[in-house]
Amino acid sequence: MRRAVCPGSYDPVTNGHLDVIERSAGLFDEVVVAVLINKSKKGLFSIDERMDMLRTVTAHLPNVRIDSWYGLLVDYCTENAIAAITKGLRAVSDFDYELQMAQMNKRLSGVDTLFMSTNPEFSFLSSSLIKEVATHGGDVTGLVPDHVREELLRRIRENS
Protein backbone atom coordinates (compact mmCIF):
# COMPACT_ATOMS: atom_id res chain seq x y z
CA MET A 1 0.00 0.00 0.00
CA ARG A 2 1.34 3.42 -0.97
CA ARG A 3 0.95 5.71 2.04
CA ALA A 4 1.80 9.36 2.58
CA VAL A 5 1.43 11.90 5.34
CA CYS A 6 0.34 15.47 4.72
CA PRO A 7 1.47 17.37 7.85
CA GLY A 8 0.59 20.81 9.11
CA SER A 9 -0.84 22.88 11.92
CA TYR A 10 -4.15 23.43 10.09
CA ASP A 11 -5.19 26.30 12.38
CA PRO A 12 -7.47 26.50 10.44
CA VAL A 13 -7.43 24.36 7.30
CA THR A 14 -7.56 26.48 4.13
CA ASN A 15 -8.65 25.70 0.59
CA GLY A 16 -4.94 25.60 -0.27
CA HIS A 17 -4.42 22.83 2.29
CA LEU A 18 -7.47 21.00 1.00
CA ASP A 19 -6.18 21.21 -2.58
CA VAL A 20 -2.89 19.52 -1.59
CA ILE A 21 -4.73 16.89 0.46
CA GLU A 22 -7.09 16.07 -2.42
CA ARG A 23 -4.26 15.84 -4.93
CA SER A 24 -2.26 13.63 -2.55
CA ALA A 25 -5.30 11.38 -2.13
CA GLY A 26 -5.30 10.87 -5.90
CA LEU A 27 -1.68 9.68 -5.82
CA PHE A 28 -1.62 7.42 -2.77
CA ASP A 29 -3.68 4.53 -1.46
CA GLU A 30 -3.88 6.22 1.94
CA VAL A 31 -3.11 9.77 3.04
CA VAL A 32 -2.80 10.62 6.69
CA VAL A 33 -3.42 14.28 7.42
CA ALA A 34 -1.36 14.81 10.55
CA VAL A 35 -2.06 17.80 12.75
CA LEU A 36 1.34 18.55 14.23
CA ILE A 37 1.35 19.65 17.84
CA ASN A 38 3.61 22.54 18.80
CA LYS A 39 3.28 22.97 22.55
CA SER A 40 5.00 26.35 22.42
CA LYS A 41 2.23 27.83 20.26
CA LYS A 42 -1.33 28.57 21.31
CA GLY A 43 -3.63 28.02 18.37
CA LEU A 44 -7.01 29.57 17.76
CA PHE A 45 -8.47 26.07 17.65
CA SER A 46 -7.63 23.08 19.83
CA ILE A 47 -6.04 20.03 18.21
CA ASP A 48 -9.33 18.14 18.53
CA GLU A 49 -11.25 21.00 16.87
CA ARG A 50 -8.77 21.10 13.99
CA MET A 51 -9.06 17.34 13.56
CA ASP A 52 -12.86 17.55 13.57
CA MET A 53 -12.83 20.29 10.91
CA LEU A 54 -10.41 18.23 8.81
CA ARG A 55 -12.64 15.15 9.11
CA THR A 56 -15.60 17.20 7.93
CA VAL A 57 -13.86 18.78 4.93
CA THR A 58 -12.21 15.52 3.82
CA ALA A 59 -15.27 13.30 4.32
CA HIS A 60 -15.54 12.93 0.52
CA LEU A 61 -12.08 11.33 0.40
CA PRO A 62 -12.38 7.71 1.56
CA ASN A 63 -8.61 7.14 1.60
CA VAL A 64 -7.84 10.09 3.91
CA ARG A 65 -7.39 9.60 7.63
CA ILE A 66 -6.90 12.35 10.23
CA ASP A 67 -4.42 12.02 13.09
CA SER A 68 -2.21 14.17 15.31
CA TRP A 69 1.41 13.93 16.39
CA TYR A 70 3.85 15.53 18.78
CA GLY A 71 7.51 15.00 17.98
CA LEU A 72 9.54 14.37 14.87
CA LEU A 73 7.41 13.74 11.81
CA VAL A 74 9.82 11.05 10.63
CA ASP A 75 9.18 9.12 13.86
CA TYR A 76 5.47 9.20 13.02
CA CYS A 77 6.27 7.94 9.53
CA THR A 78 8.44 5.12 10.88
CA GLU A 79 5.86 4.04 13.48
CA ASN A 80 3.09 4.04 10.85
CA ALA A 81 5.00 2.57 7.88
CA ILE A 82 4.64 5.74 5.82
CA ALA A 83 7.28 6.25 3.13
CA ALA A 84 6.38 9.72 1.84
CA ILE A 85 5.55 13.21 3.03
CA THR A 86 3.55 15.52 0.74
CA LYS A 87 3.92 19.28 1.01
CA GLY A 88 2.49 22.20 -0.91
CA LEU A 89 4.84 24.98 -1.98
CA ARG A 90 3.45 28.48 -2.40
CA ALA A 91 6.64 30.35 -3.23
CA VAL A 92 10.40 30.04 -3.55
CA SER A 93 10.72 31.02 0.12
CA ASP A 94 8.73 27.90 1.05
CA PHE A 95 11.10 25.77 -1.03
CA ASP A 96 14.22 27.06 0.74
CA TYR A 97 12.90 26.01 4.14
CA GLU A 98 11.13 22.82 3.04
CA LEU A 99 14.14 21.53 1.10
CA GLN A 100 16.26 21.56 4.25
CA MET A 101 13.52 19.75 6.15
CA ALA A 102 13.12 17.18 3.35
CA GLN A 103 16.84 16.49 3.26
CA MET A 104 17.00 16.09 7.04
CA ASN A 105 13.97 13.79 7.03
CA LYS A 106 15.54 11.65 4.30
CA ARG A 107 18.80 11.47 6.25
CA LEU A 108 17.10 10.56 9.52
CA SER A 109 14.67 7.96 8.25
CA GLY A 110 14.78 7.44 4.50
CA VAL A 111 11.35 9.07 4.15
CA ASP A 112 10.97 10.99 0.89
CA THR A 113 9.20 14.34 0.54
CA LEU A 114 7.12 15.17 -2.52
CA PHE A 115 6.56 18.85 -3.24
CA MET A 116 3.41 20.00 -5.01
CA SER A 117 3.18 23.43 -6.51
CA THR A 118 0.19 25.17 -5.05
CA ASN A 119 -2.76 25.99 -7.25
CA PRO A 120 -2.18 29.68 -8.16
CA GLU A 121 -5.70 30.41 -6.91
CA PHE A 122 -4.49 29.62 -3.38
CA SER A 123 -0.80 30.59 -3.57
CA PHE A 124 -1.18 33.55 -1.20
CA LEU A 125 -3.13 31.70 1.49
CA SER A 126 -1.88 30.90 4.96
CA SER A 127 -3.79 30.07 8.11
CA SER A 128 -2.27 33.13 9.81
CA LEU A 129 -3.43 35.45 7.06
CA ILE A 130 -6.92 33.92 7.07
CA LYS A 131 -7.21 34.47 10.85
CA GLU A 132 -6.00 38.07 10.55
CA VAL A 133 -8.40 38.94 7.73
CA ALA A 134 -11.37 37.29 9.45
CA THR A 135 -10.55 38.90 12.82
CA HIS A 136 -10.71 42.34 11.20
CA GLY A 137 -14.01 41.66 9.45
CA GLY A 138 -12.66 40.70 6.03
CA ASP A 139 -14.51 38.16 3.90
CA VAL A 140 -12.74 34.78 3.73
CA THR A 141 -15.45 33.12 1.64
CA GLY A 142 -13.83 30.89 -0.95
CA LEU A 143 -10.52 30.84 0.92
CA VAL A 144 -11.52 28.22 3.47
CA PRO A 145 -14.19 25.53 3.28
CA ASP A 146 -17.63 26.87 4.28
CA HIS A 147 -17.74 24.72 7.43
CA VAL A 148 -14.35 26.09 8.50
CA ARG A 149 -15.44 29.69 7.78
CA GLU A 150 -18.46 29.21 10.05
CA GLU A 151 -16.29 27.79 12.86
CA LEU A 152 -13.72 30.56 12.40
CA LEU A 153 -16.31 33.33 12.60
CA ARG A 154 -17.93 31.68 15.62
CA ARG A 155 -14.57 31.50 17.42
CA ILE A 156 -13.76 35.12 16.61
CA ARG A 157 -17.14 36.20 18.02
CA GLU A 158 -16.47 34.15 21.17
CA ASN A 159 -13.06 35.77 21.65
CA SER A 160 -14.22 39.36 21.16
The gist of it:
The protein is of the alpha/beta class and 160 residues long.
What does this structure look like?
This protein has one domain: Rossmann fold. Helix 4 links the parallel strand 4 and strand 5. The longest helix is centred in the middle third of the chain and has 18 residues. With 160 residues, it is an alpha/beta fold.
Q: Measured on Cα atoms, how large is the radius of gyration?
A: 15 Å
Strand order of the largest sheet: 3-2-1-4-5
Shape: globular
Structural class by helix and strand composition: alpha/beta
Corresponding CATH superfamily: HUPs
- Named CATH topology: Rossmann fold
| CATH class assignment | Alpha Beta
Helix content: 40-55%
Give me the CATH architecture, please.
3-Layer(aba) Sandwich
Strand content: 15-25%
- Mean of the pLDDT scores? 95
As residue ranges, the low-confidence spans are: none
- Main β sheet profile: 5 strands, parallel
Tally of domains? 1
H/E series: EHEHEHEHEHH
Number of E-state strands: 5
How widely separated are the two ends?
47 Å
Helical segment count: 6
InterPro entries: Cyt_trans-like, PPAT, Rossmann-like_a/b/a_fold
Family: Belongs to the bacterial CoaD family.
Domain Cytidyltransferase-like: 5-132
EC number: 2.7.7.3
